[in-house]
Amino acid sequence: MEEMFQSPGAQAESEACYCANPGFVTREVVGEIIAVPVGEQTKRLNGMVTFSETGAFLWKLLAGGPQTKAQLTAQLAAACGKQEAEIAEDVSGFLQKAEAGGLVVREG
């Protein structure tokens, strides 16, 4: 029998909002999207971050305002013409790496 309820931790994660860390500015250089740390963020990361096409798409959404993982997944699926289930792990992976690197901030 399929479980109908998520654990509280899983529910909190799915409802959490993520946004781009304002300590980064984004630039397009030779067709690539890069994020460059500014201000205090330069103490944490001395360099820049480049994004894949998918990463750049997600970053632009996050830079536009807070997004839940479900919202990001739905928008990416619509843009790619894929099912949400096909890309949910990709979105989760992006958020985990971006949050660990300080690029993304989790709210809530």
Secondary structure layout plus pairing:
Blueprint: H1 8-15, E1 17-20, E2 24-29, E3 32-37, H2 41-44, E4 49-50, H3 53-63, E5 67-68, H4 69-80, H5 84-100, E6 104-107
Antiparallel strand pairs: 1-5, 1-6, 2-3, 3-4
Task: Name the features.
48% helix, 3-stranded antiparallel β-sheet, alpha+beta, 108 residues, disordered N terminus
Brief digest:
With about 110 residues, the protein is α+β, with helices and mostly antiparallel strands. It is about 50% helix and about 20% strand. The chain has helices spanning about 10-15, 40-45, 55-65, 70-80, 85-100, and strands spanning about 15-20, 25-30, 30-35, 50, 65-70, 105.
Structure description:
This protein has 108 residues and is α+β, with helices and mostly antiparallel strands. It is built from five helices and six strands; from the N terminus they run αβββαβαβααβ. The strands form two sheets. Strands 5-1-6 form a three-stranded antiparallel β-sheet. Helix 4 crosses helix 5 (84-100). The termini are far apart.
- Biggest beta sheet summary: 3 strands, antiparallel
H/E series, N to C?
A: HEEEHEHEHHE
Intertermini distance: 31 Å
Coarse structural class: alpha+beta
Mean pLDDT: 86
Number of helices: 5
Number of strands: 6
Cα Rg: 15 Å
Contiguous runs where pLDDT drops below 50 for at least 5 residues:
1-11
Helix content: 40-55%
Strand order, largest beta sheet: 5-1-6
Measured by DSSP, the beta-strand proportion falls in: 15-25%
Overall shape: it is globular
